[in-house]
Amino acid sequence: RMPGTANHWYVKRPRGKLLMVKDDINYGVFADSIYRSSLAQVPGGLFTPPIDHIDIGRGLTAEEKGNGKFGPMVPPFVDPALINTFLLYDYVFWYTEQVPSLGVAQLSLFTYMQNGGKVLFSTTFQNVVDPRAALRDFAPIDSVSSAPFTPRPAPGDTRVPANYKVYADSTDPSNLYPLLAFNPPPPTFHSVFMRPIYRRSDARYIYHLQPDTANSPPRYIGSPNVAVVDGQRTIVFIGLPLHLLNNTVVGNPQGVTAFFTKVFTEEFSPSQRVNRSRF
């Protein structure tokens, strides 16, 4: 009871090892349903429904998120309140649209990972890329391409054709990720603000996008790298929205489930456990 006998606070027991962080005001129910159904199919019943989630983007506009404003579901003091919430879970799956809440992620994810937590972060980018360089405080990247999308061809693009493939990086043949592909039409193009990302020195690339063969001249240059994992295998960062990569015909038969299986059962070593001593 706090602060007196007339007032109470309640701590909800976690229902599993994974916390989904919804940092999304655009994709809504469509993205959430794909993630929940795909996670439920990961072998071994690791993520049997229901899965806990927190909607940190609730009630915000894109402008408010871009200016670093916290939503009502984010505690005023990220440390310790939000960090200790994360530490109840072994994994955090954070997904967002073009305007991620970088201020919240910057204040919470580094400490969470330093205490044994593992993070899967799926995002895409807006026209102004991370002016405060908050991404580098938790993501295994050196930078994100800030070149403009025009003139064509450009390093990145505001939309990618349906059915385009996302290939696994083959640098380490013993540790390949499953093939992914953008969902089939409709629509003909997916608006994703795709930008090449450049890895940190200890990280390795895990995915690159297929060259643009549908347009002449191509809308973007070459096969841009779009995903990385850090050297300690504590965070997988993908610069694309995963729910748009659930193509089970052009991609792999399991879609995003195969990706979740790779990340949570293989990439994230179970030998390191979350340190909950902060409590």
Task: Pick out its properties.
about 280 residues; alpha/beta; two-stranded antiparallel sheet; globular
Question: Quick summary of this structure?
Answer:
The chain is built from 5 helices and 13 strands. The protein is of the alpha/beta class.
State which percent range the strand residues make up. Answer: 15-25%
Query: Which bin fits the share of residues in helices?
Result: 10-25%
* Number of helices, counting only DSSP H or I runs of 4 residues or more: 5
Strand order of the largest sheet: 2-1-3-4-13-12-11-7-8
| Residue-averaged pLDDT | 91
Q: What would the principal axes of the Cα set say about the shape?
A: globular
Count of DSSP E strands?
13
Biggest sheet record = 9 strands, mixed
What would you report as the Rg, rounded to the nearest angstrom?
Answer: 19 Å
What distance lies between the first and last C-alpha atoms, to the nearest angstrom?
18 Å
Order of helices and strands: EHEHHEHEEEEEEEEEEH
Low-pLDDT residue intervals, each spanning 5 or more residues: none
The structure class reads: alpha/beta
Report on this model:
Helix content is 19%, strand content 22%. The protein is built from five helices and 13 strands. The strands form three sheets. It has a nine-stranded mixed beta sheet with strand order 2-1-3-4-13-12-11-7-8, sandwiched between helices. A two-stranded antiparallel ribbon has the order 5-10.
